[in-house]
Amino acid sequence: MKPALTLLDRTLHLARYPQRKNETLQAWDAADEYLINHSHDMVLDPQRPILIFNDSFGALSCWFAEKGPVTSVSDSYIAQQGCRQNLAANALPDVTQFDCLAELPANPQLVLIKLPKNNRLLTWQLQQLCHLVPDDCIIIGAGKAKEIHTSTLKLCEKYLGETKTSLAVKKARLVFIKADKTLAKPMPAPKTWDVPEHGLTLTNHANVFSGESLDIGGRFLLEHIPQNPSLNNIIDLGCGNGVISLKAAQLNPQAKITSVDESYMAVASCQENAKLNLDNPEQIHAIVNNCLDGLEADWADLVLCNPPFHQQNAITDHIAWQMFCDAQQVLRPRGQLIVIGNRQLGYDEKMKRIFGNVKKIAQNSKFIIYLSGK
Ligand SMILES: C[S@@+](CC[C@H](N)C(=O)[O-])C[C@H]1O[C@@H](n2cnc3c(N)ncnc32)[C@H](O)[C@@H]1O
């Protein structure tokens, strides 16, 4: 791993979050470097906000922290923690951190957007900006050249204004957007759809996993959630819109469900879905967290988990590993972890290593559901 970002005679020490021994992935990318190189000699007003969207682990926030009042906007709790950690490691002042549903500071002078892969989130952010930015605001998007499609540029044109692109440097590209206030539209409502076979209505903010239809893995897991009056505390780890939590709550009305996700929009959707679908919405307590960090040990009866297989843009199994280790900690003796995964992901090996036992409880052509007991 490259330990530090050195650019323009300045060095920043940047790590991903959570920090891992033998990390092979960098905490910034070529698009960050391109944005920094392009913007470094801009004359900035020390009073007017600089908005940074979707900063992966705080590289951009660190770079700009001393140049003006920075507000970093991200849907990711992990990205926010990474940003905090890197600001502290470089002895830089704190920046304001907002989630994507928060009201943004008025009158920004500069907006830097790491273009998200999710077009619904991009559209949401472009629409927010169209309402917000003054005429003189400079807006620059950035991303991997191969991920900036014609459709990405069309969204920028449609929801914010005239859009031009730069040449590619180190396979990254910049996107320059001139805001046109006449394009401002009311913010879109969350997407809502029904899962009639389970009697559920699901509402989904823009960045929620599988926010336009039910995930096929989630659909299979729904059919295998235990119903047992002795279950008092159930955790839905990586809850997304809360579909698994809702079903667990319906089947086990005596149980308290703790739903955890690192996406603020997921947790907000899960909370809204509890109100939409349950007579007692208090049955679900949804929280933003990195896996089960900081939760007490030995209290949960059951952990249900449909793990993610990427962090930011990197495909990785370390989050699944952390989720299973954390589940082992918070489960009471004889508590159970139920995991769904694609056949080739090999979650059973991990569960066997952590719990000393694993069995298959269901499978179809794509997925297997495993159970380990503590
Ligand atoms: C495969 S989705 C499952 C969503 C939902 N449970 C379902 O079955 O449709 C995995 C979820 O894990 C969340 N996630 C990713 N990394 C996480 C982390 N470190 N801590 C908590 N949640 C995380 C993602 O935001 C995503 O919502």
UniProtKB/TrEMBL annotation:
Pfam families: MTS, RLMG_N. It is an enzyme of class 2 (transferase). Keywords: Cytoplasm, Methyltransferase, rRNA processing, S-adenosyl-L-methionine, Transferase. One of its GO terms (cellular component) is cytoplasm. Residues 200-370 form the Methyltransferase small domain. It comes from the Bacteria. The keyword Phosphoprotein does not apply. SUPFAM superfamilies: S-adenosyl-L-methionine-dependent methyltransferases. Signal peptide: none annotated. Its EC number is 2.1.1.174. Residues 4-180 form the RlmG N-terminal domain. It catalyses: guanosine(1835) in 23S rRNA + S-adenosyl-L-methionine = N(2)-methylguanosine(1835) in 23S rRNA + S-adenosyl-L-homocysteine + H(+). PANTHER family: RIBOSOMAL RNA LARGE SUBUNIT METHYLTRANSFERASE G, RIBOSOMAL RNA SMALL SUBUNIT METHYLTRANSFERASE C. Specifically methylates the guanine in position 1835 (m2G1835) of 23S rRNA. This is Ribosomal RNA large subunit methyltransferase G. It comes from Photobacterium swingsii. The gene is rlmG.
